[in-house]
Every structure is written in structure tokens, then in C-alpha cells.
Design goal:
Elements lengths: L18 H9 L8 H12 L8 E6 L3 E7 L2 E2 L20 H10 L8 H5 L1 H7 L7 H9 L3 H25 L2
Antiparallel strand pairs: 1-2, 2-3
């Protein structure tokens, strides 16, 4: 691993930069760079509820779905050290309303993947066009807003499907 940023949409000014080398040189210490899901899985396995467990799956849910997988006490890596994209684990046929709204709203990403239908932005797509945060959907759902309740139920359903698939695949 070189520690260089590749083609990352959310940090375009950092493409080709190497914070690993820069920080190692500044502090004269070994430095590693990890994505949030894998770093969280490592932390959970070392110091959290997954301590002393040889297998665990850590899932993050926010603007997308991510995570890290620990198998036999080690972080699972794919080809060339790639981390698994748990939010894109399978394709899901979606209901017509979500398809129409996601096209209208221009929701980015793989709209028919787990992350595309279960992450925070998916619930936002089912709510009013003015709402852009899942926290708002949760708040208005708690107040009884029917559209927000539908969005939260939709997100929870697909999140549950994805989690069940991870459990069936990896039996953590």
C-alpha cells in the first residue's frame, strides 16, 4: 500500500497526495491510512464489543453503507488489498416510487444496490423534495409524518435484508 488517495469524489484536491508519507515524515513514526468502515471494524475487534472475537462484521450507515469484516482475527481484504463494499453487496429490484423519485432527485451512486436503497439518502428520496437529511426523516417520522414513516420503514427493510445477507455469507 502506498497511502496515496486515488480518485475520490469527496476530496478532489487530495488526488495523488500521500498523507501517509507526509505524516510519517513529520512525526517520524509509522503511519497507516484506512477507510472508516475498516478502521471501525479494527477498533471494535481490538477494544470494543468484538474484543476477543475472531469474527465480526462492522456496518456503518450514513450517506452510504460501508463496513469492515474481521475473519480469523484479521481484517478481510480482497484482491490487491481492496476492502469489501458491503453497501454494494447485491442488486435489489426497487419499487416504482423510489425509482421515479431517485431519478427526479438525481440520487448518486448505485441506485439498485443495498447502499442505494438502505442508506440515509434513500430515505430522503422518499420524503418531500425539500428534505435532504435522514435525521429530519427520523424526527418527522417520530412525529407521525406518514411519508417520513414510509421512508424510514423502506430504509429499515432494505438495511435488514443486507445485514441478513452478510450474516448468511460470513456467519460471524
Amino acid at each position: 500500500m502506498r497511502g496515496e488517495f486515488g480518485d475520490v469524489d469527496f476530496l478532489p484536491g487530495w488526488r495523488g497526495k500521500s498523507p501517509v508519507q507526509d505524516l510519517a515524515q513529520i512525526f517520524n513514526l509509522p503511519v497507516a491510512l484506512e477507510n472508516d468502515g475498516d478502521a471501525a471494524a479494527l477498533a471494535e475487534s481490538g477494544w470494543g464489543a468484538g474484543r476477543n472475537r475472531s469474527r465480526l462484521i462492522y456496518v456503518t450507515v450514513g450517506t452510504g453503507i460501508g463496513g469492515g469484516i474481521i475473519l480469523d482475527g484479521k481484517l478481510y481484504r480482497g484482491v490487491d488489498g481492496a476492502h469489501p463494499e458491503v453497501g454494494h453487496q447485491f442488486s435489489i429490484p426497487r419499487a416504482g416510487l423510489l425509482v421515479r423519485l431517485s431519478r427526479l432527485l438525481g440520487i448518486a451512486g448505485r441506485r439498485s444496490s443495498h447502499g442505494g436503497v438502505a442508506a440515509g439518502h434513500a430515505a430522503c428520496g422518499l420524503s418531500a423534495l425539500q428534505r435532504h437529511h435522514s435525521e429530519e426523516n427520523l424526527r418527522t417520522a417520530q412525529l407521525g409524518d406518514k411519508v417520513s414513516l414510509q421512508a424510514v420503514e423502506h430504509e429499515a427493510y432494505y438495511l435488514g435484508l443486507g445485514l441478513a445477507n452478510l450474516i448468511n455469507l460470513f456467519t460471524p
